Amino acid sequence: MLDALRKNSPVLVDEVLKSTKNTGISNISEIHKILQGLLKEKVKIRNMIPILETIADYKSVMHIDALGEKIREVLCKQIVANPAISHNHTIKALVVDHNWEQILIESIKENNQGYISTLSYELTKEFVHSTGTALEQKFREGIQPVVLCSRGVRLLVRNILVNSSFSDTTVLAHSEVPNDYIVETLGYIAKS
């Protein structure tokens, strides 16, 4: 894929592949991990130019997880254009409340490899229960909402849901919602 792009954008491809001292992104296998992460969440990667530009711009200051999140923000219009996510520029969402946000953000530790969660099993189970209760209520009403949360916890929320029975639920960060889209808040994922 990169060889094909090199024909039209040789400087960009070379910049991305340049090994940078003290960076989390230094070889093709790490770029491959970023692309795999995007594909797992059904983010199309056909238009590689903005993806590679983001990697080139941020590779020296961000690890793989953070780069994947930054790329999602760059591709936000493409992500929310999916009919499963929005209709007529409206996104129906369940929003993670402030209490859960605080607990989740405090559980995230960052190293040069990425994000690590220290969230206890009990709190993880409680979060899945809270999320599941809110989602199932909307499913019974025939609504397939997204889960909306802050940029800082989006990946953790996604990872928690992937390991539950709600693995197909889309998780968006507030920063991934373009300005010309409306968020219709259907409820909150609340800490009991």
Commentary on this structure:
By secondary structure, this protein is of the alpha/beta class. It has two domains: 2-74, FHIPEP family, domain 3 (Helicase, Ruva Protein, domain 3), CATH 1.10.8.540; 86-189, FHIPEP family, domain 4 (Rossmann fold, 3-Layer(aba) Sandwich), CATH 3.40.50.12790. Helix content is 49%, strand content 17%. The protein is built from nine helices and seven strands, in the order ααααααββαββαβαββ. Helix 2 packs across helix 4 and helix 4 crosses helix 5 (64-74). It starts with a helix and ends with a strand.
Q: Briefly, what is this?
A:
The chain is of the alpha/beta class and 192 residues long.
Give the helices and strands, then pairings.
Blueprint: H1 2-8, H2 10-17, H3 28-40, H4 48-58, H5 64-74, H6 76-80, E1 86-87, E2 90-96, H7 98-107, E3 108-111, E4 114-117, H8 121-140, E5 146-149, H9 154-162, E6 171-173, E7 182-189
Parallel strand pairs: 2-5, 2-7, 5-6
Antiparallel strand pairs: 1-2, 3-4
Helix pairs in contact: 1-2, 2-4, 3-5, 4-5
